Amino acid sequence: MTNTHAEGQAVAEVGGMPITAEKPTAIIEVRKLIKRFGLKNVLKGLDFRVEAGEFVVILGPNGAGKTTFLRILASLSRPSMGKINIAGFSLPDQAAAVRRRLGVVSHQPLIYGDLTAEENLQFFARMYNIPASNQRIPEVLKLIGLNARRRDLVRTFSRGMQQRLAIGRAVLHDPEVMLFDEPHTGLDQDAATMLDGILQEVAARGRTVVMTSHDLPRAADLASRIDILSRGVITASIQRDKIDTSQILSFYQQATNETQT
Ligand SMILES: Nc1ncnc2c1ncn2[C@@H]1O[C@H](COP(=O)(O)OP(=O)(O)OP(=O)(O)O)[C@@H](O)[C@H]1O
Ligand SMILES: [Mg+2]
Question: pTM for the complete prediction?
Fold first, then answer.
């Protein structure tokens, strides 16, 4: 017989002897996260837990707090209150250790306009101490389809090309956890397919992905879990294999409406 004994523990009895097994350690654990901008509460005590290897797509209405949440996880913004632990390190105090383990694509691409595409990747390779970066960089440039433009200044790039480079930079150091905020925005069909391929490949290798999206079919294809963030908290969470693709829209609608006052 197995039942939940206390938070984080599963208790089983074998031959009358209780055996206590720890739940798998979460790679991301967020408790009661609050973020205020002035007097405005944007995140309102948000709880969130991700096991290593999950692919969580966060869906939610405009202004719900998705970008705010991902920016805090990425240590680009500080929480007002609450506990955050990523890969065993806490935020905001151990931000440097957390950053090494993260690949981030945010609304503002974390790349430098006055460097070429190649120089941007070289800069980040040095920052992360990436071994064999002289092999990894050409590999990534090919992966994101920017090899022919590698010597051009990034400020001369189109938006989609900048987004491709932002993705390349995020996956360059093969991070344990990827935080992607609407990463398909601005990408053409080929690049979007390329990104889906990258995401599927990193997920297949057991990496953890948290991605926001407004694209339900894409979320349905990629996610192992779908969470709904509405009005500053996670209002619903479901394993992808527990929901039929045709039901995702009504799941979303229910989880975003029921919090309305
Ligand atoms: N720097 C800031 N100063 C003040 N308010 C902010 C700031 N950043 C975000 N907000 C507010 O926080 C709320 C949540 O914004 P956020 O960008 O996190 O939403 P979102 O869920 O990502 O929306 P979208 O789907 O449009 O990307 C909004 O009301 C926004 O105006
Ligand atoms: Mg956003």
Answer: 0.88
